[in-house]
Amino acid sequence: MPLENRAVLPDEISPRIDRALTTVGASALRERETSRLSGGEGQRVALAAALIAEPALLLLDEPTSMLDPAGVAAVRDALNEATADYGPAVVLVEHRIDDFAGAAGIAGLPPRALVLGESGRVLADGPTAQVLEAHASTLNENGCWLPLESELLAVTGVAGGLRSAAARHAVIALGVESGGVESGGVGREQERSTARDNADTLLMADELVISRSAQPVRRRHRTASVVDVEGAILHDVNLRLRRGEIVALLGANGSGKTSLLLTLAGLLPAARGTVTGARPGLVFQNPEHQFVANTVRDEIAHGLPGLDAEHVDDILARHRLGHLAARNPFRLSGGEKRRLSLAAMLAHDRPVLLADEPTFGLDRRDTISAIAALRAAAADGRGVLFASHDLRTVSALADRVIVLAGGTVIADGPTVETLRRRNVLERAGLSLPPLLDFLLTECGSDERVQRVLARLDRAVSAAGVYA
């Protein structure tokens, strides 16, 4: 234990643990087993463990990647407090600097920014505001997540973000139909909506109760007998997933999203209720839990003896993995592992795909590519159910959302319509990013919201073969 190693007096250890956990918004987790924490809860505890020793240098590698909005705010506040109280130097590596910045925008970011290119060379280094203003277009085109004012400057040429009337007008103008069908826009939605009206249900859950205390049952039969459901994670869950449909699973950290996906996949027995339909493929929240082969190429081909080399090469190219074909999956970066886990599961011809945070740890370019890959799977007739904290991605991708809170489903409906329900967002501990909040308020139709998001995505180059 770091405090014992530093000879901290025993009666000081517990208060310091409390302080660190409170700082990151994790005081309620103190007595929980670490093996029973959600991904986001684990992120908070890991940050508390790093802060507790009061280090002179704090290195943070994407500390907000799996956190809900409240968790991101807690991490940001924790860093501000730790810096003010203890004075460490902080090096923060983040893809989602837009989320980290929050409502404060550029002012909410660290004062200095260092930009690295794909080769590892330093492209820019200086005051954050100056770096983002000078390089906004280049960074946006090359797939970096940017604070909203920087993104809008890059795409529309108008400075000031949503505080500027000219910028707000430019954003609204992006939603005006130009006569053509946008990639991922209205034409796609209308076509899929018609297909869904006549679609088959691929996966059904009825009266599910999910509890970690449930004992394993026969693996090939996913109807659980009634067991002790004391302390159930979720109860009374009913859902349908149809052919060609993309559904997002929303909720705060610890709301049960991962447990529900594991139960639908047959990896966690239901305490009560039934799951029927096609056996899904599952993209795990932690990619390492999915890997079984020694090379990236073999991971793609695993379990598919009829998959020829040319097809494997095509899959690798689609997901920007060709140059990594001979590498061990466990030696990849976090984003590369995420791309591999999605690519490997998409290679299987499963009618249902479940994905747990399929875009976390990805830059914007690869997020857009992942969105396109999931759209392609739905267009091929698969049903897709994915969990995510990224409401912008959810709005661009999902036809429908299921919202979890208080141990059950509190909403199930069309994406934009449901996200406009402020009472639902409040109950679920969700908050809209500023751009989405603006669009839902100012754009009269769902189609205009999705058109704006699609056109902003199109400003990013090299988004992948699917895009």
Question: In words, what does this structure look like?
Answer:
Helix content is 41%, strand content 16%. Mean pLDDT is 86; it is low at 180-198, 216-228 and 463-467. The protein has 2 domains: 2-158, P-loop containing nucleotide triphosphate hydrolases (Rossmann fold, 3-Layer(aba) Sandwich); 190-434, Rossmann fold (3-Layer(aba) Sandwich). It starts with a helix and ends in a 9-residue tail after the last helix. α2 (10-23) crosses α3 (39-51), α6 packs across α7 (148-156) and α8 (165-174) crosses α19. Strands 9-10-11-7-12-13 form a 6-stranded mixed sheet, with helices on both faces. A 3-stranded antiparallel sheet has the order 6-5-8, with helices on one face. The longest helix has 18 residues, at 69-86. It contains 19 helices and 13 strands.
